[in-house]
Amino acid sequence: MDTALRWIVLIPLLGAAVNGLTLRVMPRRLAGLIACGAVGASFALSLKVFLGLLDMEPGHRVVEDILAGWLTVGPLHVDIGFVMDELSAVMALVVTGVGFLIHVYSLGYMSHDAGFNRFFTYLNLFIFSMMTLVLGENLLMLFVGWEGVGLCSYLLISFWFSEEANAAAGKKAFVVNRVGDFGFLLGLFVLGTTLLPELHHGEGLFSFRVLAEHAHLLAPVATLAGILLFIGATGKSAQIPLYVWLPDAMAGPTPVSALIHAATMVTAGVYMIARMSFLFVQSPTAMTVIAVTGAVTALFAATIALTQNDIKKVLAYSTVSQLGYMMLACGVGAFAAGIFHVMTHAFFKALLFLGSGSVIHAMSNEQDMRLMGGLRRKLPVTWWTFLIGTVALAGVFPFAGFFSKDEILWKAWSSGNQGLWALGFLGAGLTAFYMMRLVSLTFFGENRASEEVKHHIHESPVSMTLPLVVLAVLSLAGGWIGIPHFMGGHNQFEAWLEPVFHHETAHEGAGAHLAVADAHDAHGAEHAAPATTHAADAHGGHDDHAAEVRMEWTLASASLAWALLGLFLGWFVYSKRTAIAESARRFAGGGPHKVLLNKYYVDELYEGALIKPGYALSDKVLFRVVDAGVIDGLLVNGSAILVSIVSALVRLFQNGMLRFYAWTFAAGAAAFIIYLTLAG
Amino acid sequence: MAVGLTHYLVLAGALFLTGTAGVLLRRNTLIMFMSIEIMLSAVNIVFAAYSRALGDLSGHVFVLMNFAVAAAEAAIGLAILVEIYRLRRSVDVDGLKTLME
To answer: What is the pTM of this model?
Structure first.
């Protein structure tokens, strides 16, 4: 019990409330100060609780803060409460830490915007929702946060709502996410109905602790519930087939793209899967679906990023691609690696987005890279930090991205999924290539902007460059807490998260088939656990272990070389021999290039296959037949017609003829008497 | 021949039918009104007859009550009739259907 937890969540809400209620009157400086202060305080408290966790016994690092009971209906009981363990501590620190930096950055970026106070209100509200999601004690709290971040995402994508396209992008994000949320809710229902009859009175049904304790009872529904929850994750974390909203979400202000659509919110799906890992590991089918979806998304989005011309669109597809890697990690059971990539990705992708924001700011809101170039000398801080972010994303040793991505690829390989590894490996090279293409077009060569724009190019203010520098340092050094064993490190990150994912390491050791029967078999777990850490040892022999280390070295070197090759080609083709790019485009102009430029026509496909039929169904059937015909015609007008027919009949009796009434009355009385006489 | 309950009942029945016929067949509101009074009287006779036959005084009480009601009704009814006549110069019941609309 630690009441600090609730304040981590509530302080940003207070900030949002204060700024939101005084929207028109609060001076800008004060509003910015309140918003940044709220997130800063939240970060400081997270750090304090995290340090408290560090002092605790490994395996028992849990801090709980239950505020109140929420729902108690019959056997169903749900609390309002927060909990921080190893996993949510990582997420909380990343969200509040990166969130704080982006708040500071926004002070500069949004300084000329009329909606300054509104912007910070939404940002604080977002941090509140995200922290509810991350720290929530049960699945329902997570879902509240899940919907909350969706709302904030919608509000911030369509922040400049006076332009039709922005409002449409917000709407698209919201609707697509609703599709995923539908799956998520169904998953909740499946879990709830399965577990409810088994619980003692007063046990929180959706509490993660309770769910994990009763994980073996969930085995029969693991595949169904797992896939339903994963559908929710494909919406929030932008995986095939629901990724389409994320590139459009770039309509929002750039700090929003950095915070919500790169660093934090979109990783919610990965977090949820890691949090529910005890469920997913019981279903090899669900795990396979996750891994394949992740790997395919990683490559698919990377190919689209090759041809985009909008600087933010490239980064957006890159985000979709990187989220695919995280999903791949979860799918092969390497949850720690997935979360590791969540963290490093938050650093360098936030850095890249903020850097692109700095570029856009300097270029008078131009986002088309074909009109940029040569910004290297004019924006020195942005250039250097952006370069660091790029090599970190490309996965160059010793930057953060190298360790996390390599860990994922290695886990994919060592779990026996060489096919998935190949997809990921291919995507990694493309990542390096398209990022260097972006850098070349933006920072190298001659500036292709108009004279007017050129005149205004200037480095951004300190409030913007400072977060860039901090994030650049994190992008460089952030991976060092997870240096793998084969390089002589200890992978503290994995060790830190180990207790959270303990159950699945047991399963992996038990074999690829993830023997479900062992889920609650302590003996099986004990025997299997050591087998994972040094899988080779268990199979007896130094040689195997040495062979494995050699393999790890080989793969790591290969992916480093592959990334360097991608970077070199990106630089060479787009800044040295631009003729190559030109002729390649002409060569592939009609076919592949056009397909990629149009993002595989997925939007058009959805438009044709889902949206148009949806409209047609709504118009032709739901509106004309059901609404106008059945509801309006049959039910509403029908009942009115029925009443008027009956009343027309009844009206015949009210003709105002007194003697008619008298006759009717007398006849009725006579009939009554006759009836009584006969009956009696 | 002693006058018994049956005689009273026959008289009352005859009076009641007379009143009913008056209400149903005549168009003059005043006559109809008087016919209703006749019907009331028929009921009073039945009350009084049974009261005596059964030796129960409550029948008499009802008769007295009916007198009071009939008197009040006559006062109001006649007043309305007079007003109707003043308004329309006629008390023909078939003309009185303005409340229907």
So the answer is: 0.79
